[in-house]
Design goal:
Blueprint lengths: L9 H12 L5 H14 L6 H16 L6 H14 L6 H9 L1 H9 L6 H17 L5 H14 L4 H8 L10 H14 L3 H12 L10 H13 L3 H13 L8 H12 L4 H10 L3 H4 L3 H20 L6 E2 L7 E2 H23 L3 H11 L16 H4 L20 H14 L3 H14 L14 H18 L3 H17 L3 H17 L15 H21 L5 H22 L5 H17 L3 H17 L3 H18 L5 H14 L3 H15 L4 H4 L1 H14 L3 H17 L3 H17 L3 H12 L2 H4 L5 H17 L3 H15 L6 H17 L3 H17 L3 H19 L4 H20 L9 H15 L3 H15 L9 H18 L3 H18 L6 H13 L1
Antiparallel strand pairs: 1-2
Length: 986
C-alpha cells in the first residue's frame, strides 16, 4: 500500500513533497520519497523529477542507506549535464554540495575500491574547477579520505584547513568537529576541546551537530577532569541521536561512555532503547562504530561477572550479554577487516582494538537521577533491597532455618524477611522434602507461615484485598496443621485487612466509595470481632496474645485516623495502654515499643503535637537503652515528621538524618528507609536545599520500586521529575522520564494510565524547556487526544489542550492551535480552569500577533475576547488568581498585541487601562514589577512608535521617582534605560 497520496499534478506533487520533508528521517519518509520520484517521472517537465530526486537522496543519506545515495545522485548529474537550465541557482548549489554526500557514502562502503574513491574526488575537483567554484570542499574530502584510510594526514589537513572557506564548504560546526578530531587523533585532548568549544557551547550547530561532536568529546572531557561537563553533554547529546539510524555511531560512543564511567546498567538500558539500530543501519562504517561501542559495553558487563544478564540485540531471538558480545565481536571484526583490506592498512582494526582495550576512566559517575547497578537490572534480583549491613546469616540446615524464621518473626526481627525468602525458594523447588521433625511441624504449617508473611507484605503495600485473601488461606492451613491459635491470629488479620478495603473495591455503592464513616463502622465491627476472638480463644502464648492486642489497637487507631473524630481518641489510648501493660508484664520489647508508637501517633492525630513529640523522644531513649534497635529508624521518622508539622525543619532534618543513618544497619524495607528519604526531601525543600531534596526523592522512589510498590515509586519519581524541571535541570528530567517510560510495565500498559500521562506531560514540558519544540508539540498533541476521552476529568484535558494550543502556535500552526484552544474551552465549561485557560489564550494571541503582525490581529483579538469571557466567569465565580490578576493581565496583553500589529493608539489605550486597574504601587506591593512593565511598554509605544517622546519621558520619570521612593529600585532599571534612549533620540 502506498505511504503517500498519488498527486495528479505538479502542485499536488510539491505539496506532498513538503509534507514528506516534515517527517522524521526513516523508513516512512524514504519509501514516500521513492513513490514521489515514480510520480514525478510521469510528468513531461524535468523540474519535478529533479526536486523529488533531491529529496530521495536526502532521505537515503540521513536514513543511513549510503549504497543508494550515489545511484540517485548519478541520475541528478545526468539531468544537470543534459538540461542545465532546469537547475536554478539554488538547485545548482544543492547539486554541487552533494558531491560531498556521495564521497561520504562511498567511503562508508568497503566493497567500493580505494581507486574508485580517489576517482570520485578527481571527478569532484574537475567539476568544481569547470564551474569556477573554490576547491576548499574538495580538499576537505581529500583530508577525510586520508583520515579514514589511516595515511599521514598532516599535508592533507594543511591543504584543507589553510584554505579560505567557500559557500560550498561544510558548515562551521562540521568543520570544527573535523579540526577537533584531527587534534584528538594526535593525542591532544586539550587542543581538541578548545577547537570544539563553539559547538559544545551551542554557538554552532547543524543537522548533525552538536550531537556528533558531543559524542566524541565525552572521553577527552573525562581525561582532562571535566567529568561534570561530560555528564551534562552525555544527557543532551544522547537525546539528539537515540534511535536514529543515521547517528548509530554516536549512540555507540554514548554506550562506550557509560561502560567507562561505572554506568553499565544505564548502558544496557540505552542499548535496549536502540535495539532498532541492529537492523536499520545500512552503512557498514556506521555499523562498525556502533557495534564497537556495543562491544565495549558488553565486554565491561561480562568482566564484572554479569554475562548471564539479558541484552537487547538482533531481532529474532533472545540474547544474553555473553551471547550478544560473541555475535557483535564476529560481525565487527569482519567489518574492520573488510575496510582494512579495501584501504590497504590496519587502521580500522587498530582503532577498534584501542577502544576495546581502554580501561574505565572513572569508577563511578552519577549520570542520571536514577542511578542503578547491574544487580538492580538482574531479572532474578530479590524484591527487597539489599541491606547496607552484612547479609543476614541464614541457617543452612532446613529445620534450623524454619525455627529461626519463626523465632525472628515472633520477635518482629528484620532477619525474618530473609529467612522467609529463603524458605519460599526451597519450598517451591520440585525436590523439596519437608523435615520429619515435631519441632518443625507439618508442611501445612510452614505453607501457612509463608502465606502470612506474603499477606503482611501486601498489607504494607496497601493491597488490602490481597492481604485478606492470603490471611484467610493461611488460617485454613493453620487449622489443618493443628495450630488453632495461629489460625485465630490470621483471621484477626483478615478482619483488619477487609475493613481497610476501599468501598469501590469491595463492591460497595459508588456514593460510599472511600466514605470515612463507612470505613469507621467496618473498623469498629472488626475490633469487636477481635475482642470476641480474644475472649473465646484459650491457650494463647504471650507473643500471640500481644499480637492480638496489637491488632485490636491498630483497628481503633485506623478508625481515628480515618475520621479524626475526637470521640475515638480515648479508646485507642485504652487499647495501647492495655498492650503496653501486657507486654511489660511479659517483657516483650517489640510490643512495648509498638504501644508507645501508638500513643505518640494518637497524640499527633488528636492535635496534641507537643505531647506527641515528648512521647516519641521518650521512646527513642527507651529504644537506645532496651531496644529493639531496629525500631529506632521508624521512631526517628515519626519524631522528624512531627517536627516538620511544628515548623522546625532544621530539627526535623537532624532527626531524620539520624534515622537514615540508623536504617543503614537493617534491610531498608524493614525499617522504613523509603519514608525517611521522602520526609528528608520535604525537610530539605523547606530549608532551601532542593538539589539534596531531589536526591532523597529519587532514592525513595527506587526503594519503592525494588520493594514492589511500583505505583508509589512512579508517583515519587513524578515529583522528582517536576522538581528537576523546576530547578532547570532539563536534561536530568528528560533522562529520568525516558528511563521510567521504558520500564516494561509502563510499556505494556500495566501502570495507571493517568499516572503515565502525568509522566509524559512532565516530559513534554521538559522537552519544551529544552527547546525541542517539535518533540514537545508531538507529545502534547498525543496527550491532548488521549485526555479528550477522560470524561471523569475534563479539567485536566482543558489544561493539556490549552498548553498544546500554545506549542502549536509557537510552531506557527495557528489553525490547529485554535482547534486545540476550542477543545480546551469546551472542557473548561465542564470543569473550569480559569487561570490556565486565560494565560494560554493570552499567549496564543501574543504569538499570533507577533508572528503575523496586522494580518493576525483579528484572530488575536478574538482570542483575547475569549480570555475576557474566562476572566468574567472567574470574577462571577469569586475565583482569585494565584498569579497576576486576570483583568490586568488581559489589558496588558491587549496593549502588546496591538503594538505587534502596529495599532499603536489602541495599544496605548489598553496599557492605560491596565495601569488604571493596577493602581499606584505601594511599598510592600508585589505588583510593582507588573506596574513597571506596563509603564515601560506604554513608554515604548508612546515614545518610539508614536514618536511622542515628551509625554513618554514624563510618564517614565514619574514612575522612576515613585518606584525609587518606595524602595523598588530593581524595577526602575528598564525604565531608566528606555528614558535614556528616548533622550538620546530627541
Amino acid at each position: 500500500m502506498p505511504t503517500a497520496p498519488q498527486p495528479q499534478n505538479t502542485d499536488e506533487l510539491y505539496q506532498a513533497l513538503q509534507e514528506n520533508q516534515r517527517r522524521p528521517y526513516g523508513r516512512t519518509r524514504t519509501v514516500t520519497a521513492e513513490e514521489l520520484v515514480d510520480v514525478a517521472e510521469r510528468f513531461a517537465e524535468p523540474l519535478p523529477l529533479v526536486r523529488t530526486l533531491l529529496e530521495l537522496q536526502e532521505a537515503y543519506t540521513y536514513g543511513s542507506e549510503p549504497r543508494k545515495s550515489p545511484v540517485v545522485f548519478a541520475r541528478l548529474l545526468t539531468l544537470f549535464d543534459e538540461q542545465p537550465d532546469v537547475f536554478d541557482d539554488r538547485l545548482r548549489h544543492l547539486l554541487f554540495w552533494r558531491f560531498k554526500w556521495v564521497a561520504n557514502a562511498l567511503r562508508a562502503l568497503p566493497e567500493i575500491p580505494l581507486a574508485s574513491l580517489r576517482q570520485w574526488l578527481t571527478e569532484m575537483r574537475d567539476r568544481y574547477e569547470k564551474a569556477g567554484l573554490g576547491l576548499h570542499p574538495y580538499y576537505g574530502q581529500a583530508y577525510q579520505l586520508a583520515a579514514h584510510v589511516g595515511e599521514d594526514t598532516a599535508l592533507a589537513y594543511e591543504l584543507w584547513a589553510g584554505r579560505t572557506r567557500t559557500r560550498l564548504s561544510d558548515c562551521e560546526a562540521c568543520e570544527i568537529c573535523e579540526r577537533a578530531l584531527y587534534h584528538l587523533t594526535a593525542g591532544d585532548d586539550e587542543r581538541a576541546l578548545r577547537a570544539w568549544e563553539p559547538v559544545l557551547a551551542g554557538k554552532e550547530s547543524c543537522q548533525e551537530e552538536p550531537a556528533r561532536s558531543l559524542s566524541y568529546a565525552l572521553l577527552p572531557l573525562l581525561r582532562t577532569g571535566g567529568s561534570d561537563r561530560a555528564r551534562d553533554l552525555h544527557l543532551a547529546g544522547y537525546r539528539g541521536c537515540r534511535r536514529n539510524p543515521a547517528m548509530s555511531a554516536e549512540v555507540g560512543r554514548h554506550l562506550e561512555f557509560c561502560a567507562l564511567t561505572g554506568n553499565e546498567a544505564r548502558g544496557l538500558e540505552l542499548l535496549a532503547e536502540n535495539r532498532n539500530l541492529f537492523d536499520e543501519v545500512d552503512s557498514p562504517l556506521d555499523q562498525l562504530d556502533f557495534l564497537t561501542g556495543v562491544e565495549v559495553l558488553l565486554q565491561r558487563v561480562e568482566v564484572l561477572g554479569h554475562g548471564e544478564l539479558p541484552a537487547a540485540g538482533y531481532a529474532g531471538r533472545t540474547w544474553t550479554v555473553t551471547g550478544l558480545r560473541a555475535e557483535v565481536r564476529g560481525r565487527a571484526d569482519d567489518l574492520a577487516a573488510r575496510f582494512d583490506a579495501r584501504n590497504g592498512t590496519t587502521t580500522h582494526s587498530d582503532r577498534r582494538r584501542t577502544r576495546l582495550d581502554r580501561a574505565p576512566l572513572l569508577d563511578t559517575l552519577e549520570l542520571t537521577l536514577r542511578t542503578r547497578s547491574l544487580d538492580d537490572v538482574a531479572p532474578a534480583a530479590p524484591v527487597a533491597t539489599a541491606p547496607a549491613r552484612p547479609a543476614t546469616a541464614v541457617p543452612d540446615a532446613l529445620p534450623e532455618l524454619i525455627l529461626r524464621a519463626r523465632e525472628a518473626d515472633e520477635q518482629g526481627h528484620p532477619d525474618a524477611r530473609a529467612c522467609w525468602a529463603r524458605l519460599r525458594t526451597l519450598v517451591a523447588a520440585r525436590d523439596y522434602a519437608h523435615p520429619d521433625d515435631p519441632a518443625v511441624g507439618p508442611l501445612a504449617r510452614l505453607r501457612a507461615d509463608l502465606l502470612t508473611d506474603e499477606a503482611n507484605r501486601a498489607h504494607e503495600r496497601d493491597e488490602f484485598a490481597d492481604a485478606a485473601a492470603l490471611h484467610e488461606e493461611a488460617a485454613n492451613l493453620y487449622d489443618d496443621a493443628g495450630a488453632p491459635a495461629d489460625a485465630v491470629l490470621a483471621r484477626a488479620c483478615v478482619l483488619l485487612a477487609t475493613a481497610e478495603i476501599p468501598a469501590e473495591e469491595a463492591g460497595g455503592p459508588e456514593e460510599e466509595a472511600g466514605g470515612p464513616e463507612a470505613k469507621a463502622a467496618a473498623l469498629t465491627a472488626a475490633h469487636a470481632s477481635m475482642v470476641r476472638m480474644h475472649e473465646e480463644t484459650p491457650g494463647l502464648t504471650p507473643h500471640q496474645e500481644a499480637r492480638l492486642l496489637r491488632l485490636r489497637a491498630s483497628a481503633l487507631a485506623q478508625r481515628l485516623q480515618t475520621t479524626g473524630n475526637q470521640e475515638y481518641v480515648a479508646p485507642v489510648f485504652a487499647e495501647a495502654d492495655l498492650l503496653r501493660a501486657f507486654a511489660t508484664r511479659h517483657d516483650l520489647a517489640v510490643q512495648i515499643s509498638v504501644a508507645h508508637l501508638l500513643r505518640a501517633t494518637t497524640y499527633a492525630i488528636s492535635g496534641d503535637l507537643p505531647t506527641a513529640v515528648t512521647e516519641a523522644e521518650a521512646l527513642l531513649e527507651r529504644l537506645r537503652t532496651h531496644g529493639p534497635a531496629w525500631h529506632l529508624p521508624r521512631t526517628c521518622g515519626l519524631r522528624g515528621r512531627l517536627q516538620l508539622v511544628l515548623q522546625d525543619p532544621e530539627a526535623a532534618y537532624t532527626t531524620l538524618a539520624e534515622g537514615l543513618r540508623l536504617a543503614a544497619d537493617w534491610p531498608a524495607e524493614a525499617v522504613g528507609a523509603t519514608r525517611l528519604h521522602a520526609d528528608l526531601a520535604e525537610a530539605c525543600m523547606r530549608l532551601g536545599r532542593p538539589d539534596e531534596a531531589l536526591r532523597h526523592l529519587t532514592r525513595a522512589a527506587e526503594l519503592d520500586l525494588r520493594h514492589g510498590s511500583r505505583t508509589d515509586a512512579y508517583c515519587t519519581y513524578s515529583n522528582a521529575a517536576q522538581l528537576s524541571l523546576d530547578l532547570g535541570r532539563v536534561e536530568d528530567c528528560i533522562a529520568l522520564l525516558d528511563s521510567l517510560l521504558a520500564e516494561p510495565d509502563v510499556a505494556a500498559g500495566e501502570l495507571d494510565d493517568r499516572l503515565v500521562a502525568q509522566l509524559r506531560l512532565t516530559r513534554a514540558r521538559a522537552l519544551h524547556a529544552g527547546e525541542d519544540l517539535k518533540a514537545a508539540t508531538a507529545e502534547f498533541v498525543a496527550l491532548a487526544a488521549e485526555s479528550a476521552g477522560w470524561d471523569d476529568d475534563p479539567g485536566s484535558h482543558a489544561m493539556i489542550a490549552a498548553e498544546t494550543a500554545v506549542l502549536l502556535a509557537e510552531s506557527g500552526e495557528f489553525g490547529r492551535a485554535r482547534e486545540a484552544a476550542d477543545q480546551a474551552l469546551t472542557a473548561h465549561a465542564r470543569e473550569p480552569r480559569f487561570e490556565h485557560l486565560s494565560n494560554s489564550l493570552r499567549e496564543l494571541a501574543r504569538l499570533q500577533a507577533q508572528q503575523q503582525g496586522a494580518d493576525g490581529l483579528p484572530d488575536a483579538l478574538a482570542l483575547l475576547a475569549e480570555a475576557g469571557r474566562v476572566a468574567d466567569e472567574a470574577r462571577a465565580a469569586g475565583y482569585e488568581a494565584h498569579g497576576r490578576s486576570l483583568d490586568t493581565a488581559l489589558a496588558y496583553e491587549h496593549g502588546r498585541v496591538n503594538a505587534y500589529a502596529g495599532a499603536y493608539e489602541d495599544a496605548l489605550a489598553a496599557l492605560e487601562k491596565a495601569l488604571a486597574l493596577l493602581g499606584e504601587p505601594g511599598r510592600e506591593d508585589d505588583r510593582a514589577g507588573e506596574w513597571a512593565e506596563c509603564v515601560r511598554l506604554a513608554g515604548v509605544v508612546e515614545g518610539l512608535y508614536l514618536e511622542r517622546p515628551a509625554p513618554a519621558l514624563t510618564r517614565l520619570d514619574a514612575a522612576i521617582t515613585r518606584l525609587t521612593a518606595l524602595g523598588h529600585t530593581d524595577e526602575t532599571e528598564s525604565l531608566a534605560s528606555l528614558a535614556a534612549r528616548l533622550r538620546d533620540e530627541e
